[in-house]
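Ticket #4471: structure output looks truncated?

Reporter: J.K.
Steps to reproduce: submitted the chain below (255 residues) through the standard prediction queue, then opened the result file.
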Amino acid sequence: MADHIPLAEKVGKEVDAFLRLWQSRRGLAIAMVLGLLAFGIWSISSIWIKGNQIDRLEGDKRQLEAAVRESERENRGLRETVAPLLARAAKEFPGEEINASLKKLVGRLEADRPGNRPLASASASVEVVTDSPAQVSAHFIDQGGYIAFGNGSEAFLTASSVDSFGNTIGKNEVLYRSVFQMPADDKMVGKPLRNIADAEYIQVEFSAMSENQKIVRGKAVVVFNGGLRAEFAIPAQTTDGRRIFVRNIPPFLSP
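Returned output as attached by the reporter:
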């Protein structure tokens, strides 16, 4: 076995050999140094590039794993949704091809959505509180009011009443309230309820109320077709004559 040569001795011999080369053939020594430097720079840049590639691949892998998890979640939800529909379609349309029965079932469900049902009735319970020192306790049997859903100058639906109530409920607070009913021959009767969702504002008026009153608060609870309930807050405002407005009404038919 050859004797072990210490690393320091090896390095020393290499340095001595390089110094001799430098003295005898300096051009070759310079070329060697430049080659070593180029190789070192190439090695470092190669490692850096590969590190960036690995980081990108790991990021792509994480995104792909997240997409797979989301896809699996959606597939589970889809199966949970479709399975009952398949069972219901087979039960309600026995003997029919599954695609045809599903199409019929989906059409029936779509027609049964609240927004797609024809409007048959509408009633509204409306109350507003004014800032007034008046002492009021009255049933105005011949002074009612109305509520209307409007878009620009067009009224989609109007409900009215022939009477209303006024009561002082606190210091400088008078409550006006009434229940408004849509007439059976309103132009919206028979049309899809979703048409009313195009309304931009609600307008309310109480005939017994004085003009240019300061409204403190209020609310309007509207019931369509005897079962679909929507509640709207009436914000503080000063009436335009007797007109009270609820603007930018929310999409109450979205559910």
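Triage note (M.O.): checked the attachment and the full token line is present. The helical segments are 7-24, 26-92, 98-111.
Status: closed, working as intended.
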